[in-house]
């Protein structure tokens, strides 16, 4: 398997992904925004796009669907709950089902929160697992919940689907917000050496140069994965926010990030 990451150079800083089987040259277009860019990148690899998969229904994750489908005939797959929200969904994906294309296998993770229909994809047969997290998990942050989402569902998705994943899982998020998110993380843990290190590392990077981080690395600096950090909890308490349960800390972080 090979993954091509395309930075869309748009206001929302989207990443598009093409996931290709190097044996069969078949590929998946994941969350295409710029259909022509996705088609050109696939052609450069010598891949034939056989599937279009959308993690959720927001416009910046589906606008390229028509162009890719018109050129390739690939069907559109998304959550079973996305039918009627995403045009021309041919197959509704159910929780924990396995998608196979060529030699590639993915598990569908139900991750409502950013929207009620959000799903992530987890590779099943790669030596190192890869998580395509859409707008659920970003570098140093969680997705927002103010555009049709629910923060309690997001917390539950983190606990149920993401917490059990091994540290060596590589994260492929739907957007590049790493610099801003690291700055936000450091407002809660100003002494976090990993956050400080990576802030320095990526400071001069362009979006398409951003590193691919593991969940183990994310767990060292992402406040939404560090809900029991004493320093973080103390900062929340000092701001007069009540409750120190993991859920309340998560919700407080998300509230402050919405205003960041």
Structure description:
The protein is of the alpha/beta class. The protein has one domain (2-258): Ribonuclease Z/Hydroxyacylglutathione hydrolase-like (Metallo-beta-lactamase, Chain A, 4-Layer Sandwich), CATH 3.60.15.10. The chain is built from eight helices and 13 strands. It has helices at residues 35-45, 65-72, 151-162, 178-188, 193-202, 215-221, 230-238, 246-258; strands at 2-7, 15-20, 26-30, 48-53, 76-79, 89-93, 98-101, 104-110, 119-123, 130-134, 137-138, 141-142, 170-173. The strands form three sheets. It has a six-stranded mixed sheet with strand order 1-2-3-4-5-6, covered by helices on one side. Strands 7-8-9-10-13 form a five-stranded mixed sheet, with no helix packed on it. A hairpin with a 2-residue loop joins β7 (98-101) and β8. α1 packs across α2 and α4 (178-188) runs antiparallel to α5 (193-202). It starts with a strand and ends with a helix. The model has no long low-confidence stretch (mean pLDDT 96).
Q: What's the helix and strand layout?
A:
Layout: E1 2-7, E2 15-20, E3 26-30, H1 35-45, E4 48-53, H2 65-72, E5 76-79, E6 89-93, E7 98-101, E8 104-110, E9 119-123, E10 130-134, E11 137-138, E12 141-142, H3 151-162, E13 170-173, H4 178-188, H5 193-202, H6 215-221, H7 230-238, H8 246-258
Parallel strand pairs: 3-4, 4-5, 5-6, 10-13
Antiparallel strand pairs: 1-2, 2-3, 7-8, 8-9, 9-10, 11-12
Helix pairs in contact: 1-2, 4-5
């Amino acid at each position: 398997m090979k993954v091509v990451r395309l930075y869309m150079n748009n206001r929302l800083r989207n990443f598009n992904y093409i996931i290709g089987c190097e044996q069969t040259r078949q590929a998946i277009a994941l969350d295409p925004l710029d259909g022509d860019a996705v088609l050109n990148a696939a052609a450069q690899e010598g891949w034939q796009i056989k599937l279009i998969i959308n993690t959720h229904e927001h416009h910046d994750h589906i606008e390229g669907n028509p162009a890719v489908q018109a050129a390739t005939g690939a069907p559109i797959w998304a959550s079973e709950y996305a039918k009627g929200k995403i045009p021309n969904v041919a197959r509704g994906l159910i929780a924990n089902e396995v998608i196979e294309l060529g030699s590639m296998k993915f598990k569908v993770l139900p991750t409502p929160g950013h929207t009620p229909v959000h799903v992530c994809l987890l590779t099943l047969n790669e030596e190192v697992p890869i998580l395509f997290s859409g707008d659920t998990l970003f570098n140093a942050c969680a997705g927002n919940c103010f555009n049709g989402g629910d923060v309690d569902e997001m917390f539950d998705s983190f606990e149920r689907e993401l917490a059990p994943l091994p540290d060596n899982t590589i994260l492929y998020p739907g957007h590049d917000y790493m610099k801003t998110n690291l700055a936000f993380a450091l407002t809660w843990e100003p002494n976090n050496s990993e956050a400080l290190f990576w802030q320095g590392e990526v400071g001069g990077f362009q979006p398409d140069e951003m590193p691919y981080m593991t969940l183990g690395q994310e767990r060292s600096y992402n406040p939404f994965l560090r809900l029991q950090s004493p320093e973080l909890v103390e900062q929340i308490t000092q701001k007069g926010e009540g409750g120190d349960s993991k859920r309340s800390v998560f919700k407080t972080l998300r509230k402050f990030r919405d205003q960041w």
